[in-house]
Amino acid sequence: MKAIHTSDAQKKNMLDLGPLHSCVYDHMQKIIANPDILIGKNLDLSESYKIATLDSEKWQNPAVVQKIFDLMPILPHFCDLLIAFFKGAAETWECFTSEFAPGGLIDEATAEERELTWLPAANDENEGFLGSF
């Protein structure tokens, strides 16, 4: 969400977010294939964000990440649940972003067509007072 909720979010065209959607999907697949990049026992939390996060930026709240790592030994099914979550999220992501897929309607649209049908990247205006923040 950070990628579209920036100071210039009002200028971004949702129809140009295909590459971002693809990166999100690829990152989910990377975690499914190797959850250790996110929750591996030998991870150094001060460095793990570099491969664990989509944008390779530091954890927004490292204390929360540390608490999850502290609790993992008493949560024997955590890894399986994490993988199931990402599998479900990836499947849903594919459904909701199919227009952006190669050969899809948005992917095949020209830059001019995307500009003519410009849509805001974020749905803030429809989220009421809270969305204005």
Average pLDDT over all residues? 87
* Straight-line N-to-C gap: 14 Å
Number of helical regions: 8
Overall tally of domains: 1
Secondary-structure element order, N to C: HHHHHHHH
Q: Helicity level, as a percent range?
A: 40-55%
Q: Quick one: how many beta strands?
A: 0
Strand content: under 5%
Please tell me how large the radius of gyration is: 18 Å
Task: Provide an overview of this structure.
The protein is an all-alpha fold and 133 residues long. The protein has one domain (13-113). Helices cover 53% and strands 0% of the residues. It has helices at 18-33, 36-39, 45-52, 62-71, 78-96, 105-108, 111-116, 128-131. Helix 1 runs antiparallel to helix 5. It starts with 17 loop residues before the first helix and ends with a helix. The relative contact order is 0.17. The mean pLDDT is 87.
